[in-house]
Design goal:
The structure holds two protein chains of two kinds. By secondary structure, chain A is of the alpha+beta class. In chain A, 29% of the residues lie in helices and 33% in strands. Chain A has helices at residues 41-49, 91-101, 106-119, 135-147, 165-182, 193-199, 217-222, 227-232, 292-298; strands spanning 3-12, 15-25, 30-34, 56-61, 64-65, 76-79, 153-157, 185-190, 202-207, 210-215, 237-239, 242-244, 249-252, 260-270, 273-280, 285-291, 305-310, 314-315. In chain A, a hairpin with a 2-residue loop joins strand 1 and strand 2 (15-25). In chain A, helix 2 (91-101) packs across helix 3 and helix 3 (106-119) packs across helix 4 (135-147). The longest helix of chain A is centred in the middle third of the chain and has 18 residues, at 165-182. Chain B has helices spanning 2-32, 34-42, 44-77, 83-90, 92-95, 98-109, 116-121, 130-140, 143-156, 159-166, 171-200, 203-209, 219-228, 232-256. The chains are: A alpha+beta, B mainly alpha. The A-B interface holds A 49-51, 70-72, 74, 76-78, 80, 82, 84-88, 97-98, 101-102, 129, 142, 145-146, 148-149 and B 156, 159-160, 162-170, 173, 177-178, 181-182, 263.
């Protein structure tokens, strides 16, 4: 099912959460809404689900105007950041909820729930209550619950935001795999650019209630549309009017015409790569990414004076 | 040392203010003669008084339970003009003396009141009859269910309800399957407190009922009646039954409370 958002605006009191937003989500795609907090990404997702009403603008689901239809009529599955588990029901009853509401026969409900419990690897936990599960298990249960009625669109609001790094990485891979199997149109909200890059085919970058750019992960990183996208997606240093990625800077020990003098502030070893934080002669801080071999050759240490040369710059008019 | 003194003060206060008078009641029933108390308790008028009290509770408690849940939902989940006012009004019976409530009802439904003449014309006896007593009982026990349910509703938030909506549940289905089960302990607790309040009501009912023996006399009014007739054993006996009900309710509440954390 495709989603079209047309000229949607929404404000809460004096705060403009969305300002004339229009996006297209292709049927079967896996899209990320990426932006800092307050950028309106969650509000947009909730409007698509029907959990919020836009002040103006329309939402089309499969080409039909769904702006006025309530959430229960939209055929969307929604996953909340804090799981929204039904605390008084077991895992099994949580997952069965959408099917029971649709009055499916008991045998069918049982079979579908068993299938989903296996899919989200909660075998042995089906008769537990949400309070007896870990955060990751609760979120997997919430995913199974949203998937049970076979929604045409799956919407996830910062689904992994409340989980620790290891569980988060695992669930990202799992979501990616799930999408490859089912091809359900999926939209998820995240403030983590790495998560967006890793999981999504298409990324909608949002800022202050507006869409800054819509592109695939690679295009977004290589050809950002503006300074906001440049600095928000991946690291970027500012050199006068130009922006330079930390891996597009070369450090040398001798100055030449195109280098800038800088002092090493800190050398951070991150396994294979090394991040060097420096201060320029004009007081601006920036960072450079090096391989371990490069760092070893340069014998970088705190307080040392080096010279930085941009290999590739981006200038926005 | 300070820890113990806090406990001492708290327990001592309870002992003097609550337990002292209650145990006095037990002792006096015993001293005046259990036989006399029993005679008063088995008197048909006493039986009728308890029946009236239970009837009042049976009408007021369900109505206030439904009203309390609706008001709590409105206060927590909805935005509308006058919400602050509604919130304050729910607490009015807590602040207002029941005697004042009784008096207002008396004036309203009396011969010269706004509603009184209309009901008289249509042959409905409001004052000195069950209708006014029901109104008085409802009035004084309005706040308890709402006051219990409001904080619980706030605490659970509305995400579970939103999740139910996205899963296809209508507003009504969401209420029965998600909201009500989530607040059930608060509702039960509110019902218990409301019941206790209805059984114990005296002031408002005393004014509107006219305290007619064997007709509009409630258990608490009966206590007063026996006391005034200097039938002290009877008065203490009935009080003892009311106190026993209160203690039963108290035990019931403490049994209910801890289970809340489990579900």
């Amino acid at each position: 099912m495709s989603i079209q958002v047309r000229h949607v605006s929404k404000h809460f009191g004096n705060f403009q959460a969305l300002d004339d937003v229009s996006i297209d989500v292709a049927g079967g795609s896996l899209t990320a809404l990426l932006g800092p907090s307050g950028s309106g990404k969650s509000t947009l997702l909730r409007i698509i689900a029907g959990l919020e009403q836009p002040d103006s603008g329309e939402i089309f689901l499969s080409g039909e105007d769904a702006t006025a239809s309530p959430p229960q009529k939209r055929g969307v599955g929604f996953v909340f950041q804090h799981y929204a588990a039904f605390k008084h029901m077991t895992v099994r009853d949580n997952i069965a909820f959408g099917l029971k509401i649709r009055k499916r026969p008991a045998a069918e409900v049982r079979a579908r729930v068993d299938e989903l419990v296996a899919l989200v690897q909660l075998q042995g936990f089906a008769d537990r209550y949400p309070a007896q599960l870990s955060g990751g298990q609760r979120q997997r249960m919430a995913l199974a619950r949203a998937l049970a009625p076979e929604p045409e669109v799956l919407l996830l609001d910062e689904p992994f935001g409340a989980l620790d790094a290891r569980v988060r990485a695992e669930l990202r891979r799992w979501l990616r795999r799930l999408h490859e199997e089912t091809h359900t149109t999926t939209v998820f909200v995240t403030h983590d650019q790495e998560e967006a890059m890793e999981v999504a085919d298409s990324i909608v970058v949002m800022n202050k209630g507006r869409v800054e750019q819509v592109a695939g992960p690679r295009e977004l990183y290589d050809s950002p549309a503006n300074e906001f996208v440049m600095s928000f997606v991946g690291q970027a240093n500012r050199f006068g009017d130009a922006w330079v990625r930390p891996h597009d800077l070369e450090l040398v020990l001798e100055p030449n015409g195109s280098t800038r003098e800088a002092q090493v502030e800190r050398v951070v070893h991150l396994g294979f790569e090394v991040r060097c934080e420096l201060v320029r002669d004009d007081g601006e801080e920036f960072s450079v990414q090096l391989t371990r071999a490069q760092a070893t050759t340069l014998e970088l240490e705190r307080g040392q004076i080096v010279y930085a040369r941009p290999v590739k710059e981006t200038v926005f008019s | 040392m300070r820890r113990y003194s806090v406990r001492f003060v708290a327990l001592g206060y309870l002992l003097v203010v609550l337990l002292g008078p209650l145990s006095m009641l037990f002792w006096r029933v015993y001293a005046e003669g259990v036989g006399k108390a029993w005679t008063a308790l088995t008197d048909p008028d006493t039986g009728h008084a308890f029946k009236v009290t239970l009837e009042l509770a049976a009408i007021a408690v369900p109505l206030n339970t439904i009203f309390g849940i609706v008001v709590a939902l409105a206060i927590v989940r909805r935005r509308f003009p006058g919400k602050g006012l509604l919130n304050a009004f729910v607490d009015l019976p807590l602040a207002l003396s029941p005697v004042v409530v009784g008096l207002s009802l008396y004036l309203l439904y009396g011969r010269t009141g706004w509603f009184g003449p209309w009901f008289t014309q249509h042959g409905v006896q409001v004052l000195f009859a069950l209708p006014s007593m029901v109104l008085a009982t409802i009035f004084v026990s309005v706040p308890f269910v709402a006051r219990e349910v409001v904080p619980t509703l706030r605490e659970i938030g509305d995400e579970q309800e939103q999740a139910a909506h996205t899963l296809g549940a209508s507003g009504w289905q969401t209420f029965w399957r998600i909201t009500l089960p989530s607040i059930r302990w608060a509702v039960i607790y509110g019902v218990v407190v409301t019941t206790a309040r209805c059984l114990g009501e005296y002031g408002a009912v005393a004014i509107v009922s006219g305290s007619i023996q064997g007709k509009t006399e409630t258990a608490t009014l009966r206590v007063q009646e026996e006391f005034e007739n200097l039938n002290l054993a009877g008065s203490y006996g009935i009080s003892l039954v009311l106190a026993a009900i209160a203690i039963f309710v108290l035990v019931l509440m403490t049994r209910l409370r801890p289970r809340e954390g489990v579900s």
